[in-house]
Amino acid sequence: MNKSTQAYEVIVLGAGVAGIYQIKCLKDLGTRALLLEADEDLGGTWFRNRYPGARFDSESYTYGYSFSKELFNEWHWKERFSSQPENLRYLNFVTDKFDLRSYMRFNARVKSMEWSEEDRLWTIKAQNGATYLTRFVITGVGVLSVATPPKIEGMESFKGDSFHTYWWPKESVPFKDRKVGIIGTGATGIQVISEIADKVGELKVFQRRPNWSVPLNNSLISDEEMAVIRSRFDEIFETCAKSQGGFDHLPDRRGYYKVTQEERIALWDKLYDKTPGFSLLIGNFPETFFDGTANEALSDYVASRIRERVVDQKIAEKLIPKDHGFGMQRLPLETKYFEVYNRQNVDLIDVSETPIERITEIGLQTTAEHYNLDMIIYATGFNAVTGAMDRIEIKGVKGKILADKWRDVPSTYNGIFSHGFPNLLMVAGPQSVSGSTNYPRAIETGVDWVTRFLKHVFKQGYTRIEAQLDAETQWQKEVKKAHQQMPFRNSKSWFTGYNSNIKGREEGAIRYHAYWGGAPRYREFLAKSEEEGYQDIDMR
Ligand code: NA7
Q1: What is the β-pairing status of strands 161-164 and 131-139?
Q2: Residue 404 belongs to what domain range?
Q3: Best CA proximity match to 256, nearest among 301, 322, 191
Q4: DSSP tag of 203
Q5: Are 48 and 174 contacting, i.e. CB atoms less than 8 angstroms apart?
Q6: What is the pTM of this model?
Q7: Ligand 1: which residue has its CA nearest to atom 29?
Q8: Is the separation of the CB atoms in 421 and 397 below 8 Å?
């Protein structure tokens, strides 16, 4: 179908947390703007990930937007760590409150973008046949929005239901009396397993490498508690701004080596048993992350807690990571996860010992056994951070393709620009802090900066902007330096670029796709550029 070309000043890609806020800011500026979304409705991550157990690992009120106190006061988060349906309702509420829906076009997956140097315009082509012309493009296409199912022989032949968690169907999926297999024990797998174990007939968990995981300590938020949270608005977001990861937790600064072992255990017991969210990771002594000995002691502590919770000690040992210390991969948070393995209807199959050979019409064959299954759940992760950008053919100056430039390692300036691709801005892009800190906090940083920058550009009447190559080269050094300082720099986690289902990334080739210097330092770089009048960006 050929539709007539439509022209805009700015087009935003993606109606997730980033795109929704960005289109609101453009609306406020009075810009002729449009948002294109691949899915049939808004919500991004929270539209897609409908799998049972999907919820925030960030405190709900630190995940929600902070740009409007009025919005903060109007929304009542029902749970400290809110679940997917409520999160999606929240994003719809925000969209309606600020009247943004008319700016959004759904079912508009962008397949290509081409820069015209002569016209200083991007031509965007969507899969639905529509073509758009725009001066500027802002992408908010997500850091975990391209699912990577495994490549196992026979997957297509399976006669039962099978889903990657990201593509979980909208319709309710029956579990009662069914034999369910799940592959993957990352943050997603752990949420699903805990949620469905008591709803299915049998559950077979195919685990390759265990992850450290600690209690989420979720709870309901009463009206009274929500009122207290509202009264702490300034304090909450000041703490988030101060914290390296953008959370409402600050580290314990007493010093790991300055306190007694009893004091350490007392803190860890409190953080494990009572304090919500990532507190054992970030409300702890910083040495437990950066210092090998302290990290080992904390890992031993968490391992002992797992042993207490799992009855069969052989299974407990299989659930304790031996190849990495606590916090050295993205930490999944759990609710009664380890107790699942005490149930009669749940089996843990160690596929590092007996690898999966193939999927059959009726189940899964390992080197040791065949398992009859009615359903297979793939909780096998994502082509992280760059995946969603790479699958759009983005043709910049002299026809160069962005995915080619980024083949081995992405290269950006401040995570917002990439030299050779003028008038293209990313608000949750690679090498920003969106993949490395509390996502919405990072998004607001990016969107606010980009909005102020564009305001300046519009005011000056510039029609072409491009980050200088030197500035980008310098940023690459910063990104690499920050990554090298991280104790998990070589870990097999999506943090580093590892993904066993993507050719070339099976062994954890470092992608340098996130800035690991922390949110406060990242904001300093952005502020410097702005204070110096954007000298690092060519504008004409
Ligand atoms: P992750 O964290 O990438 O975890 C993927 C899991 O799937 C992990 O346990 C993998 O084991 C396992 N996996 C992947 N491929 C296979 C194959 N082929 N065979 C067996 N096991 C496999 O993805 P999540 O969705 O859990 O979490 C991603 C983010 O979403 C999370 O960090 C939050 O920010 C939200 P492996 O470790 O590779 O041995």
Answers
A1: unpaired
A2: 5-146+383-467
A3: 301
A4: E
A5: no
A6: 0.97
A7: 187
A8: yes
393 inside domain:
yes
Distance, C-alpha 145 to centroid of its chain: 8
First to last CA, the chain: 37
Structural tokens at position 107: 């079912």
Give CA–CA dist 445/434, Å, rounded.
Answer: 9
Atom of ligand 1 nearest to the CA of 494: 3
Ligand 1 centroid, distance to 499 Cα (angstroms): 8
Has residue 457 been placed in a domain?
yes
Distance from C-alpha of 32 to C-alpha of 7, rounded to nearest angstrom: 9
Q: What's the structural domain count of the chain?
A: 1
Q: Which pair of structure tokens corresponds to residue 300?
A: 């031993």
Q: Please name the residue whose Cα sits nearest to atom 3 of ligand 1.
A: 381
- Residue 382 C-alpha to ligand 1 middle, in angstroms? 8
Long-range Cβ contact pairs of 392-395 (< 8 A, separation 24 or more)? 392/13, 392/110, 392/111, 392/112, 392/113, 392/141, 393/111, 393/112, 393/113, 394/112, 394/113, 394/421, 394/424, 395/112, 395/113, 395/114, 395/115
**Ligand 1 binding pocket mutation candidate from 194, 434, 500, 502 (most atoms within 8 A of CB):** 500
For atom 15 of ligand 1, which residue has the closest CA? 380
Classify residue 183: in a domain, yes or no. Answer: no
**Both structure tokens of 480:** 């690499």
CB–CB of 537/466 below 8 Å? yes
- Digitized pLDDT (tens) for each residue of the chain, 540 residues in all: 345 688 999 999 999 999 999 999 999 999 999 999 999 999 999 999 999 999 999 999 999 999 999 999 999 999 999 999 999 999 999 999 999 999 999 999 999 999 999 999 999 999 999 999 999 999 999 999 999 999 999 999 999 999 999 999 999 999 999 999 999 999 999 999 999 999 999 999 999 999 999 999 999 999 999 999 999 999 999 999 999 999 999 999 999 999 999 999 999 999 999 999 999 999 999 999 999 999 999 999 999 999 999 999 999 999 999 999 999 999 999 999 999 999 999 999 999 999 999 999 999 999 999 999 999 999 999 999 999 999 999 999 999 999 999 999 999 999 999 999 999 999 988 999 998 999 999 999 999 999 999 999 999 999 999 999 999 999 999 999 999 999 999 999 999 999 999 999 988 779 999 999 999 999 999 999 999 999 999 999
Q: Give, for ligand 1, the residue of 48, 208, 211, 371 to mutate: max count of ligand atoms closer than 8 Å to Cβ.
A: 208
How many whole angstroms from 51 Cα to the centroid of ligand 1? Answer: 15
Give the separation between CA 56 and CA 44, rounded to whole angstroms: 14
Pairwise CA distance, residues 439 & 515, whole Å? 13
Q: Best mutation site among 145, 349, 380, 513 for ligand 1, i.e. most ligand atoms within 8 A of its Cβ?
A: 380
Residue 67 lies in a domain: yes
**Residues with C-beta less than 6 Å from any ligand 1 atom:** 144, 150, 183-189, 208-209, 330, 351, 356, 379-382, 494, 500-501
Give me the CATH number covering residue 402.
3.50.50.60
- In three-state secondary structure terms, 303 is helix
